Amino acid sequence: MLALLHTSPVHVPVFDALRDRDHPGTPLRHLVHEELLERAVALGPEAVAGQVAEVIAGAVAEGAGAVLCTCSTLGAVAEASAGAVGAPVLRVDRPMAAEAARAGRRIVVVAALDSTLAPTAALIREEAGDVELRTVLAAGAWRRFLAGDRDGYLDAVAAAVDAVPEAGADAIVLAQASMADAAERTSTAVRVLSSPRPGLGAAVAASGLRAWKEAGTPAPGV
Fold first, then answer.
1. What is the largest CA-CA distance in the chain?
2. 3-state class of 168 per DSSP?
3. Is 165 left (phi over 0), alpha (psi -120 to 50) or beta?
4. What is the pLDDT of residues 127-159, one digit of tens each?
5. In what order do the strands lie in the sheet with 28-32?
6. Most exposed residue of 12, 71, 75, 90, measured as fewest CB within 10 angstroms of its CB?
């Protein structure tokens, strides 16, 4: 079983659909804790590190083979709990950051929530090293998200993406998992990267590998 830590219920159907498409039959357990993001925005991610670790430890104790944190703001503190819980803990945006690193040196991060910009930028620098990195906050997008205006939210994100000069970017990173569908609404020729699909794929692989190890059997292809 793979547990997913969300800070909004909107992620549940997104990851269920991706599971059905790419990993049919994989059991998912969704843990929605909106209050963690609220406190992290107000006080910083470290203020909720203990609570995040408790949620993750509880999921592992109840049988999760791995835990995927789908909130970019909390990604770093979630990963930091892996050693204590004894199971893989992944942040959804790391595979996306690695892909951005392969795309080129000029990377633009677009976010709807200001608290996401710094953690995402730090992750990309961790994966890519010396890059030319720029961050963009999609004006008015988060207000629309909170109001439940999904179309308005995605349109605002897409507008921010399309405003990035094509000559100045090798890749545009959508910092939050909730932004993924905005990529389909853009007209830019620059490669636009989102986190849900590669993040889930990495987590499913980590969950399965742990299960095989605990069963004492080799993983397929090993």
1. 52
2. helix
3. beta
4. 998 899 999 999 999 999 999 999 999 999 999
5. 28-32, 2-6, 66-69, 89-91
6. 12
* pLDDT over 90 (residue 221): no
Hey, which residues does 172 pair with through a beta bridge?
Answer: 108, 192
| Whole-angstrom distance, CA of residue 180 vs CA of residue 18 | 12
- Tell me the residue ranges of DSSP E strands in 8-114: 28-32, 66-69, 89-91, 106-111
- Beta strands 132-137; 106-111: pairing state: parallel
Please give the model's pTM, rounded to 2 decimal places.
Answer: 0.90
16-67 residue pLDDT tens: 999 999 999 999 999 999 999 999 999 999 999 999 999 999 999 999 999 9
Residue with tokens 């995040």: 52
- How many other C-beta atoms lie within 10 A of the C-beta of residue 33? 18
Structure tokens at 96: 């996306």
